[in-house]
Design goal:
It contains two helices and four strands; from the N terminus they run βαβαββ. By secondary structure, the protein is an alpha+beta fold. The protein has a four-stranded mixed sheet with strand order 1-2-4-3, with helices on one face. α1 links the parallel β1 and β2. α1 crosses α2. The N and C termini lie far apart (about 30 Å).
Length: about 90
């Protein structure tokens, strides 16, 4: 999926299209762990729009992850969430 924000295009990202809720949860935590190891201050999670269940799972997971300082839905693409990592 192509982002409309050129500044987000350079950030590490994971695409969760086609994932179920549990797989999205595991992949989100694994992605955050990798981002922390690589010292990425900001990453993008592409969850899509769909029914909103994957997005809800991702946001629930991010809210419980101690390595996440903040997250928000991208204003230009509501199918993406921008995550700030605690380094």
């Amino acid at each position: 999926m192509q982002s409309y924000n050129i500044f987000l295009d350079i950030l590490p990202k994971i695409d969760l299209h086609g994932y179920d809720i549990e797989s999205a949860r595991v992949a989100t935590n694994d992605f955050i762990d990798e981002a922390l190891k690589m010292k990425y201050p900001k990453v993008v999670i592409i969850h899509g729009i769909g029914t909103g269940k994957v997005k809800e799972s991702v946001h629930n997971t991010l809210s419980k992850n101690k390595n996440v300082s903040s997250y928000k839905v991208d204003n230009l693409n509501v199918g993406c969430t921008i995550v700030e990592i605690k380094l």
